[in-house]
């Protein structure tokens, strides 16, 4: 009886230790740098808060910060004179957080769009969608009313062009979050430069990624790797 008790206690102890190491492994140091969206100037004194733990740190003179976080955590970003923003942690790479000055109007281009945080990107998508809209549904008489001024104006055309670029960037990020180097290397022996070539040639579509689970993406990678080897004549 005593032996069984000691055996059970040992198992519980091992489980407890395993749980501690698992938690330690899950908790990582996230490094990042806060910069202004337009000028790329580094910003000192930016408040970075992990919304799960309420842990807060501030950026140093060079805009750098380090904070404890896990995958799927959210970091709330706040600085005087800048719009508040939120960053989603989906990997442990260095985070470059680009902040936009309050009440500033920027001329959108691909460079600025790539720098936007996800929450900023969504906000811009919604804004440009409204700005580029050239028809609406009548509330009183029914039917659809067209607005020639929105349809043919430079502002309307620019908004629709920006909307397309913003949505393309959103789709690109969604693919990058699931079609990762780590996942590919977990099921294939690929290393750079072959890894980069494989990712370029067999990049999945957004339509697939939108519905795919992690297991679906793994199976896709395995199938794509077979095609990759066949193509190379292996």
Automatic annotation (TrEMBL):
Q: Which domain of life is it from?
A: Bacteria
> What is the name of this protein?
CarboxypepD_reg-like domain-containing protein
Name its species: Sphingobacterium anhuiense
